[in-house]
TrEMBL record:
Record keyword Signal present: yes
Domain EthD: 43-118
Source organism per UniProt: Steroidobacter flavus
Record keywords: Signal
Protein name: EthD family reductase
InterPro entries: Dimeric_a/b-barrel, EthD_dom
Signal peptide coordinates: 1-22
Length: 130
């Protein structure tokens, strides 16, 4: 499956799960979880697992304001990007985020992450939205 088809399926899956994929700014306030994936040892295997297995698990999560996945592009000067992928998820509060990830669906996502990130750095950040 080519990248365009994979991204289209991801968008359809997220939309079917009731997750907005619109590129609009979230409303003020709340928090944002960011997951930054470093460059994997085998990008093709990473992409296959991430799009085919992990993201359908993510799409099953209910309660987030919005979710957005992106693949990083080279810098303007052609140098490699700092990260391979970025995932963002918006919530109303830290308590809501904790409750969402404490659901069976949230637990599945957390448990699945090591299945495709061996040899890859995974940086998680929680940011307060202004």
């Amino acid at each position: 499956m080519d990248r365009r088809t994979s991204l289209s399926l991801l968008t359809v899956g997220l939309a079917a799960a009731g997750v907005s994929t619109a590129a609009t700014a979230p409303s003020a306030g709340g928090i944002k979880l960011m997951v930054l994936y470093g460059h994997p040892p085998n990008p093709e295997e990473f992409e296959k697992y991430y799009l085919g297995i992990h993201m359908p698990l993510v799409a099953a999560i209910k309660g987030a304001r919005r979710m957005e996945a992106a693949k990083c592009l080279p810098q303007a000067d052609g140098s490699p990007p700092a990260f391979h992928r970025v995932f963002e998820m918006w919530f109303d509060s830290p308590e809501q985020m904790a409750a969402v990830f404490d659901t069976p669906e949230g637990k599945k996502v957390r448990a699945d992450t090591p299945n495709f990130t061996a040899g890859t750095t995974v940086t998680r950040m929680v940011c307060k939205l202004d």
